[in-house]
Amino acid sequence: MKIGILTSGGDCPGLNAVIRGAVLKGVRIHDDEFVGIRNGWRGLVDGDFMALDRHSVRGLSKQGGTILGSSRTNPFEGEHGGPENIQKRLDAQGIDAIIAIGGEGTLAAAQRLTDAGIKIVGVPKTIDNDLAATDYSFGFDTAVEIATEAIDRLRTTAESHGRCMVIEVMGRHVGWIALHSGMAGGAHAILIPEQPQTIEQICEWVEHVRDRGRAPVIVVSEGFLLAGMEEAHSHKGLDAFNRPRLGGIGELIAPMIEERTGIESRATVLGHTQRGGAPSAYDRVLATRLGMAAIDAIQAEQWGSMVSLKGTEIEIVSIKEATGGLKTVPQDRYDEAAVLFG
Amino acid sequence: MKIGILTSGGDCPGLNAVIRGAVLKGVRIHDDEFVGIRNGWRGLVDGDFMALDRHSVRGLSKQGGTILGSSRTNPFEGEHGGPENIQKRLDAQGIDAIIAIGGEGTLAAAQRLTDAGIKIVGVPKTIDNDLAATDYSFGFDTAVEIATEAIDRLRTTAESHGRCMVIEVMGRHVGWIALHSGMAGGAHAILIPEQPQTIEQICEWVEHVRDRGRAPVIVVSEGFLLAGMEEAHSHKGLDAFNRPRLGGIGELIAPMIEERTGIESRATVLGHTQRGGAPSAYDRVLATRLGMAAIDAIQAEQWGSMVSLKGTEIEIVSIKEATGGLKTVPQDRYDEAAVLFG
Amino acid sequence: MKIGILTSGGDCPGLNAVIRGAVLKGVRIHDDEFVGIRNGWRGLVDGDFMALDRHSVRGLSKQGGTILGSSRTNPFEGEHGGPENIQKRLDAQGIDAIIAIGGEGTLAAAQRLTDAGIKIVGVPKTIDNDLAATDYSFGFDTAVEIATEAIDRLRTTAESHGRCMVIEVMGRHVGWIALHSGMAGGAHAILIPEQPQTIEQICEWVEHVRDRGRAPVIVVSEGFLLAGMEEAHSHKGLDAFNRPRLGGIGELIAPMIEERTGIESRATVLGHTQRGGAPSAYDRVLATRLGMAAIDAIQAEQWGSMVSLKGTEIEIVSIKEATGGLKTVPQDRYDEAAVLFG
Amino acid sequence: MKIGILTSGGDCPGLNAVIRGAVLKGVRIHDDEFVGIRNGWRGLVDGDFMALDRHSVRGLSKQGGTILGSSRTNPFEGEHGGPENIQKRLDAQGIDAIIAIGGEGTLAAAQRLTDAGIKIVGVPKTIDNDLAATDYSFGFDTAVEIATEAIDRLRTTAESHGRCMVIEVMGRHVGWIALHSGMAGGAHAILIPEQPQTIEQICEWVEHVRDRGRAPVIVVSEGFLLAGMEEAHSHKGLDAFNRPRLGGIGELIAPMIEERTGIESRATVLGHTQRGGAPSAYDRVLATRLGMAAIDAIQAEQWGSMVSLKGTEIEIVSIKEATGGLKTVPQDRYDEAAVLFG
């Protein structure tokens, strides 16, 4: 078979390992051929392809980013988008099937294209770990590790100077990165989108920590909302271009804490460092296995399926059933972490 | 309740995080008191205890080793061992229940003591990830990460000098560390106890890699056996002074490869670096959750139980049912990795 | 002798290693006693001391922060400040001499106190490496390493998405961290306070990189100024609530680049992660040696002196001669790096 | 000009950064052309060349190993060696001058070839930091960092189990890696080739540490010799197959300590992990600057010169004057470290 691969959406450590896993398995076991589709769906819509053989994937398991490039293009938009045009592109290249590596939007698009008769298999990609169909997604472990290292570093400064440190991590809609890095880093409060808190509650935790003679460390997801302060959010959130402002919540909270508690407070926004660079060993193994399993799904002609992690096994599930709901942090996981607060 | 905690057997990153999780949950939620039992079962047998309060566990989630010390003492041996003597020690201290953190041997002892009426809950600890009752055990992720970093480093030297690098990792009876670090590091062969191979097969992989213009990287578990060379193994253990040789299998294989293929070959034995030092974020989260769950098991009076990871959840299982079989690398996981060999 | 030690000003990896080096050398070689002065000059002014013996410095060489705490208090201010009051505090504790670890301000204060008869020796501390009297100061190497790791990570995202990444590092008045991390990370432009540039020049570099098919990576010191845009800088400091904006120059430049070149651009502000956490091996060695040499200076009764690195040697120099001028990046070092721009 | 570059001898982090620095400076400033000489002097003798343009050095500053390959070939040996044959190879390729990156042997060869009229400039390379002509050589800082991380990890196991850990680091003739990593890691004894010690002295340090309730950590250079035990050393080199034993001194000392002190002792040999993989930021900066300065030396037609670090400056010195003496650890640096022993 001739298989096209594309990577879509934001960066995520492990994308290259997925590509390598798929290519090595396909070439060695099934004598497949591969074509790289550049810059996500855009390359498919525009017919922008690149050679992708066994040599191209050499040494890729540890390399961050994606050699295929990425974009946020929607394959149904634009003059050249849509299933018919895409099928023409595939036919012109002799591509039999596509492996689409991407998040919720990409998987939804993959489902629609499958419904239109295009042969696609998905690999879930979300740094935020917010896809319900998989226990963990590659990139998440690396992001948590990077955030934890930053928390470790910021803690020593907090303690030397008697300061409160507010560390903003990724997580627009779900709090998994904050939950795990906060637990790993020994945070005194973890603020996540699923659990709005009042500034009063936060200050109570902060003062409790200070009263025990320690320096408060707070980890906050970028998507956390202060309870009862929708007003503050509505202002803070927009920049001159009417887009959500970078930084945001951490920089909003830190001065509030300082003002109310008198404890010098500083915000640090970890930003893109969480999603670039070499993947952790965990993510390399997971991504490699997912890439290899995508070939199994193609062999089994399970179009519209995606690969996922369940326990220690890689399974093939239906995109339709697997997506649709955001995997939020459940109450019991938050309660478990909250035992360590304050 | 007054709870004693002990750590037994070899070092493992995350031991301190288990202790911290248990103490913080017990103190904060159930008003429990804690006593540290020094140096594993030896402290229990000898009555060697230490204070263990909330302050003692400060900052422990990221700290390697165990503040309680460890040993390989068997609680049933010696003049002061056995359930009756141990119960006296516990009574003298007013200890109601014990959390025993250790491997197969510790869990088996915990079961026997439970059968004798002592109230114990176990937390599984194995750097090798060889306990069947848990998807993963804390410390394993850190060991894989350290081994993977070493493989990454050794690879550049291999390629600059056209050498074959043989990297010996931990794994006396099972090959999990080799399997995961080898996949993560892009090894060209992974040699594990579960899958004996002939030196001819290994050399075939090595030559195949060389013929593709690359430098072979081989990861081998310390417990790997060369098929058809039991003789070599029986000799390998002795040096010129008739003492057991350190290193072992890696140093046995490397010169054999060099002799048969003509490719300059070097062995590196990672040794104890794999089991010391700060745990990865993954292991900190897992260990903290296990420690907290051990308190739940005590609250539920599930004596003779242990905590374990199933998928993303921490469960409480019976030690009796959970132990007994070594969790070896199954054939399908080896086959999956073998696609990447050569 | 009885020696007091204080750490003053911002956090810097290696402070604890200086303390450990001084205490171990003093205790072991000269039978000195030590007293910790809490929170910089404030502890001296307020008489806030802590025990500091050999046991207190155990394991400190690798620990970030300072066990003594720090502050920005000026010893000449306040009701209890000034040489006379300080001398009283020292007499009350029986302290013979002080080791003051701090930056330009601390060293200037140490000089004034020396002039007033107080026995002080200084250890230079500046994460920015801006003190002329020493080749390098501890903490700088760690900061450069952390910034370089961040650049490595951000680069993969830049390349996968065809973006321009602007990374803001520390350096209020001098560009050493930007210069070294930018060279190490392969930046396409390094923007430092010593070398104002126009936005047009920056965009020229950016476009040149893009035209070669690569993703531009720009490292900028927090103190960099855009040539001909003083207006922008004076405004940049205020947000919608009229508070000083965090981030600053990186977040100012990135949208300018995007607007002028059409290349999607993102800013990341590394912030406090650069000055917390475990020191690099280089900084541990340097800090330990400086701490030990401070004891030599005290033994030699060289009051008003400080220890410094010259080549591979630690020397004792006069604070008066050593300070006063900021050590800026010289033109030839900037020109050397600029060969790699664009 | 057309410039050939070769890398010779053992692996060393920063080789690629030297190549990149030289090529970028030569191409951009002087319009030089470059040719890669494969596998050290062997490529020159055999006429094995590779393209080396600006594109080839992309992203190399952080990459371990050498894209040119390396070997230990002596250019004066073999049928095709010697100045006349080499000059023919250079003429055939139109190469005007050579940059030779290597250790003592390479620099000596470069001098002899210079004397024979071949135009060569040297860049000193020694992971052991044993070249007198330069304050530090690239790769050394990375090796020290890796060794220090390993010591940090091994220490926690030592303390949890009350063991003595013996860590063998590189350093065949000089003890710089042991000295710096031992100081950084807080070792209780540092054993280097320049300072033979008796096993009795070592055991005295070990027992002193144990008596203070701590776990002894000993760092030993591979070239260290036990005073009064030449016999042991002469035997240690051979295993049961009469081949040189790997490991060596660490594995010799650990059981001796255990036998004499009763303290369980373990040896770990760090081996090749110290010289592979990504260079530290310090080494990237140093290596890049040395590579660029080599172009300056060529422009100045200073044949037979080499580039070196003096303080913070890169200087051009004569190979003849710069080499010849091993840079050993001086007595005062050893005494300084020894204050921290025991």
From TrEMBL, chains A, B, C, D:
Keywords: ATP-binding, Cytoplasm, Glycolysis, Kinase, Magnesium, Metal-binding, Nucleotide-binding, Transferase
Residues engaged in binding substrate: 126-128, 163, 170-172, 222, 266, 272-275
Main location: cytoplasm
All copies of domain Phosphofructokinase, residue ranges: 2-298
Enzyme Commission designation: 2.7.1.11
Residues reported in the UniProt entry to bind Mg(2+): 104
UniProt-annotated binding residues for ATP: 10, 72-73, 103-106
Pathway info: Carbohydrate degradation; glycolysis; D-glyceraldehyde 3-phosphate and glycerone phosphate from D-glucose: step 3/4
Location(s) in or outside the cell: Cytoplasm
SUPFAM superfamilies in UniProt: Phosphofructokinase
Cytoplasm among keywords: yes
Reactions that this protein is recorded to catalyse: beta-D-fructose 6-phosphate + ATP = beta-D-fructose 1,6-bisphosphate + ADP + H(+)
Pfam families tied to this protein: PFK (PF00365)
Root EC class: transferase
Active site location: 128 (proton acceptor)
Site (Important for substrate specificity) location in chain: 105
Necessary cofactors: Mg(2+)
InterPro entries: ATP_PFK, ATP_PFK_prok-type, Phosphofructokinase_CS, Phosphofructokinase_dom, Phosphofructokinase_III, PKF_sf
Function field: Catalyzes the phosphorylation of D-fructose 6-phosphate to fructose 1,6-bisphosphate by ATP, the first committing step of glycolysis.
Binding partners and assembly: Homodimer or homotetramer.
PANTHER family in UniProt: ATP-DEPENDENT 6-PHOSPHOFRUCTOKINASE 3, PHOSPHOFRUCTOKINASE
Stated family: Belongs to the phosphofructokinase type A (PFKA) family. Mixed-substrate PFK group III subfamily.
Annotated protein name in UniProt: ATP-dependent 6-phosphofructokinase
Phylogenetic lineage: Bacteria, Bacillati, Actinomycetota, Actinomycetes, Micrococcales
